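REQUEST FORM: STRUCTURE PREDICTION
Request ID: SP-0412
Submitted by: Lab K.M.
Chain count: 1
Length (residues): 533
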Amino acid sequence: MTTTFSPPVYAFAPSVRLTLRLEGEGGKNDAKNEQTLQLGAEPTVETPTPISIIVPKRFRLERRDCFESDSLELTIPFDACPLDPRIVRAVRVELYGGLVDLKAFGAAMETGKGRPTAAQIPENLLFVGYVDDMEADVYGRKGDLTLHAQSYQSLIQDTPMSMRVADLLSGTPAMLGALSSFSPMFRMLFGGVATAWKPSQVVSLVVQSIPTLSGIKVKVADANTEKVGEIDKTRLNPATAALEYEKESVWNYLQRRLTLDGVIPYLWLDTIYLVKTANLTKNRPFGWMARHYGVINPIPNPKRPTEGPLFIVGHNITAPRIRRKLTRQAAPPIEARMYDPTQGRTHSAAFPSASEREAHPEMWTATGGYSAPQVVKLPFHPGHIDKLGEAAQTLYLANRRAPLEIEFETGDFSSAGLPAAVPDVLSLAGGDPIEVMERKAGEPNPEDADKGKLSDSLSHLNGMSVTELIDYLKAYGYEAKAAERLAGKLKSELPATYKLQRMTVDYDGEAPRTTVSLTAVSYVNVNLDTLPA
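STATUS: Completed
RESULT:
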């Protein structure tokens, strides 16, 4: 008797959990109603109603970088979730998804009448947030409910900064009065004992003092993050402290305060992680330390634990689109200026400095393209005056490096060479590195299999040695010097590592089909709002 082993066929399976605040529930306290929509809140008389598990018809999940909010557009069958917008006040949505054994999942769909049990759905949380808009199309034969949701980051971005918290953090005369309004625990932890705030203290104090944000947790991705720097209260001028947070959102306040200390607040699901800005320039995941210790992502890649997913053209992605905005001339010098109202004078710093420009006048004269630095005015902050040189250098380098962008789609959820059961692509977050490699010369191209071709143009050139490529270009009529320079660049300077800027997961359960679209850049764009200002 011969036994035939059939390996499991994996497919993507999503599920949705909704937590509702229905009309008339929770009393009249809107702040309390929002607060009780926290992730994992146990339902009581005054807390929301949980509904699970719902298998969506379609969804589009968009993950963006650390400066923008993630979003989710979700369509679920009305018969599985008969919600009328007229009875719903607020909804929190959690999207789960992952790979399942297609045979087992299909049987569960049949026996469970379209609603498999929790044990049959991967408990990998992909998104959590609040619904902004609910639309019900219920008068057709097959009614649908469409939800548009934003991540918690949107809530943080829309919440104005609390004046009492800003007073406390700024060391103003109002600090003692602001402190008295907090709980005894806060007075014990933050009661003016230290002259400086650690980054995690700042975020915890801000988040926990605002009722609608009390469900958000704060974690330090790297223990050394707390040692990067501290926000010194004594350096801030009480007379101008109010200028710091006037009409400012919580998120902008945190970004502005923490980036000076080399720390970036990064929201993943319901937790703010504090990550060193050095991760932006290293080829490792943006939240690598947090993932490494298992506090962000439950799907580690055993073969590449400190690197991002690997994509190979012709294997797990097809032809990517590559774009670059080209510069017409050299980047101008940058002069950062800041007016100080307390002293009645303007501080400034330039990069490259005046002495460097004098040493190489051909680069900065009209012949070279510019005769004077480009002036950038930054808003006043008394503690940031000594950071003007860094701000000028950051802006100059950002202008000098034209962004290189790569965009592609994949139907795979795993790195090239990994088994389907390790869907590391689903764990990608904005700022994470990915590797995009070219197919080797001579490898079959799936797209051209019916045409008898072996490879596309780029992989064909990549398979040549430098000498062969020079001869190839010279045969096309290139001059010897041009052929040598072009061949050298093609063979040595094609980037392989990019930083993820945006990822979209499109799921259609009726097709069924799931597509992941990724856009990555060769460096992380500089957000002017996060510069020392």
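NOTES: The radius of gyration is 27 Å.
Reviewed by: T.R.
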